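[step 3/7] fold_predict: job queued, chain A
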Amino acid sequence: MRTFDTVGAHVLADFWGCRPEMLDDARLLMDALRQAARMANMTILAEKEYKFEPQGFTGMLLLAESHISIHTYPEQGYAAIDVFTCGGGLTGKAIEYLREVLQPDYVKEVRIQRGVPEKKAMETVIEAP
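[step 4/7] structure written:
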């Protein structure tokens, strides 16, 4: 039986101060998720999206490495982003690309190391303008 590496990185990012019209544009957001996955060497297996009325969006990519998702609240200028990869995926590259596209005023990231024994796991909180 083949074994796989369980070690991965999980980033939870809060983007504040994004332009509301961008956070309500389903096409732009799904294209951004796809491009973020490509930039991070992730393999897209499937995708799902839902546009809320009167505003808001949820989109998700199922990856060979795990997943990437976004939930938006245009009325608040807020996006909740979740990127989890194991293996060859580069979570930081995906977040960096989404940050370039959505241009938030403020970002809070929580980075969690997954798939390692609890005593060795690390969690980092990064806040940046």
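[step 5/7] annotate
The radius of gyration is 15 Å.
Strands lie at 8-16, 44-51, 57-63, 66-73, 78-86, 106-114, 123-128.
exit 0
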